[in-house]
Amino acid sequence: GLLKPLSYRDRRLVIASNRGPLTLRDSGSKGLEITPSVSGLVSALNPIIDQEGGAWVGWGGRLGKPDEIMGKTLPLTDRNDAFFHEVILTEEEVEAFYEGISNSCLWPLCHNFVEKALFDAEQWQNYRSVNIKYAQTLLQKSQPRDLIWIHDYHLALVPTSIRLERPQAQISLFWHIPFPAPEIFATLPWARELLKGLLDCNLIAFHTESYVRNFLITAEELLGAKVDHVTGSIFWAGRKIIVAAYPIGIDWRDFESLASKPEIRQKAHQLKQASGGDYLILGVDRLDYTKGIPERLKAIEWLFENHPEYKRKITFIQIAVPSRTQVKAYQSLRREVEETVGRINGRFTEDHIPVRYLFRPLRKDHLVTHYLAADMCLVTPLRDGLNLVAKEYVATNGNYSGTLLLSPFAGAANQLKEALQANPYSPQETAEQILKGLLMAEGEKKRRLHSLYKSVKEQDISWWWKRIKQAWLTGSTITVSPKAT
Ligand code: GDG
């Protein structure tokens, strides 16, 4: 049956994530500007905090002096029982904690890009102290019985600070990116410290069973923790920690309802007409080297080279949302992508431009217009925790038509079994699967789409939260003897 909302007077849900749900900006004459933050994580957690009430601790985007830790407290819902508590960071912290350890070390490492991971001991010091900052705010804004829900690789040491203050606290962490194999994770000079941080949780959740397996083996090998691989539990410091796979879902009703609006359907139709070809193919990603954008472009190039009859028939639109633009690896990726787009269009443009590239975010209704207009969506990351774009494309088109080509290296491939698959490292295989999808009989297209739609609807955002809540409240209360460490 349904679980009761968690929030009653003495036990609330308190979320912590790197970025908070609101972005604040001091804009001189206009005063403080407050806008909703745009990210997959925020759209996933908004309906949950809306339902449960509670508090959310996160950075609001404002920079301050070292002694400023907490900023504003702002209401999150009309009901006034959910609040955002702003964390203030210094410029140096943003560089070392966010751009440094989080995005130039842990991000590449967890996505198997070992050669891109930068290990800087000074930055690690900073990562530690910023994690303490978040923990201080959490402790101040929560009660001992509250459920502390931490998100992602930015905040792996927060559980330790909470546990020290409150040995009985209920702490859970959701890790949104892959967890790598132990021999990769072990290259992190602070691997043990980070692991111990995570093990101060009661429940650690990932998107897939294989990330869970990697985590269990890593805890066993690097820490010598006692692990039960059958139930997914770790015995450490006298506690039992549950480790489980709960892939995040989406609020599909939102996409379905936008997709049924006549003005959006009309715009989608116009977009398809304006593209000029028979087939419109779409890619939507943050501009990130994990997303396989240059590889995808090479597949399109292979296709035009080997099947020139498609030059006029196919338009490929790549929406690349600017991301982490201060980090070098992202700057050189941008150059590579733009050169490749230029080369392909230079080679294959006749009376029709085959590749369109947008380096900017779109408004949500425009994004849905693109999903709707596209005959096929290419979700071909080299590695991806889950990938929400795949689910959003399916939710938008579920009642109509569309084909999804999905990389087996996206966590979502475990759920979206009826998608076409291709190894993104092979331009030829990817191009052949694109053609297969375009030429597929209508009946099979429909059958595949329906099955995908069914799983996106069944395993949606409330399914996800219900599962996590259940595991949290029922599975992690058993205490074992301290000898187990
Ligand atoms: C991390 C993990 C995991 C994209 N372009 C626009 C736009 N978007 C929205 C999409 C989607 C979100 O951004 C991207 O989510 P993804 O899941 O695809 O990727 P990451 O940002 O890397 O997210 C990932 C996720 O966390 C959740 O756990 O799935 O594996 O890497 O929601 O719709 N939104 C708007 N305009 C755009 O142009 N408005």
TrEMBL record:
Domain of life, source organism: Bacteria
Pfam families in alphabetical order: Glyco_transf_20
GO molecular function: alpha,alpha-trehalose-phosphate synthase (UDP-forming) activity
GO BP field: trehalose biosynthetic process
InterPro entries membership: Glyco_trans_20 (IPR001830)
Family classification: Belongs to the glycosyltransferase 20 family.
Protein name: Trehalose-6-phosphate synthase
